[in-house]
Task: structure prediction
Amino acid sequence: MNEWHRHDDGARAPRVLTGQVITGDGWEREDFPLQAPPHQPSDTHGPARKNAGGTRPSRTRPPWVRPSRRRRTARLLALLLCALLLASGGTYAWADLRLDRSVDLGEAGDRPPRGKGTTYLIVGSDSRDGLSEQAKEELHAGGGGGSRTDSMMLLHTGAHGTTMVSLPRDSWLTIPSYLDPRTGKRHRPAKDKLNAAYSLGGAGLLVRTIELNTGIRIDHYAEIGFGGFVGVVNAVGGVDMCVDRDIRDEKSGLDLTKGCHTLDGDQALAFVRQRHQEAKGDLGRSRNQRKFLAALAQKAATPGTALNPFRTYPLLGAALDTLVVDEDTDPRTLVSLFRAMRSVSSGDGRQLNVPVDGRGVTTAKGSAVKWDAAKAKRLFTDLRNDRPVTVEEKG
Result:
């Protein structure tokens, strides 16, 4: 029911009272009962519209609703993924800039044709770079400079898994013609021990010598010195290694009792260098080197190392400090090399010495290791053509 009243003040403009509207002609209209207008959707994208009485609808902010657990988890995963991508990209760029690509495989001249699969040459040199005088003494590495190789391995990976072949440093082989960088004199091809190639002409002559005597083209080269090796082992927290007898070697400094041990960097270097306590001398040392390298790769791949930045970055830093590679190697190449090494330790591959003639050979430069020509040729032909290796290690 509506009632109209004359307003005494004669106001021309309407005024809004509680439940009343004073119109322009002075009459007062009362609505009984006062009811809320029907719900109308608010217009949040344009100017507010006046209602029939001239009022503007109030704007209220919708209440905050807590995101669901699934949405919060998705956001967290997205943030973590972004962080990992940024960290991975930064680590890749950092490692790529620090790589020492000083080996040019292209300058080797006449080389074997490219084979199937990928073949790496892994070299452990006696470079003392990064070692203090005290460290050299403690590691029994005081003599000599960075001019010799302590270990050389071919690592081939392809359709039939991975094969790691040790090349004894005392192997008696033909060293191709080379130009002495110190004197400028050209030397003709001649027989010598394998590690002499590195001493005479560095990594380039070593690669040429191995390619000449194996017929295998080296796709990538990786060399690490004493200091880098010790740092890598320490960065992973040591490597577990078992020996079947007590070993005490004064020249390398190795002192181990029979059983299993976690070798730190100093002990690991002594382990891979010692040969005087091995019944097979240089061949026994080569076997130890392959065994340790595979165990090191396996340890570096464990979640406790690979997912721990406090171990991963010191590991990379120690390796890059003395690592020397070829011009075509990048961090992705090193990851492939690492995976191939790890596959050997996981059983997806083989480890062996190059087949040798057990009689050896006596030379003017001392006793040397003589390869079994027929078996070695068959081994290297299998690797070059990426076929399963059929040669068994002997000697």
The first helix runs from residue 69 to 98. The first strand starts at residue 2 and ends at 6. The CA atoms of residues 76 and 85 lie 14 Å apart.
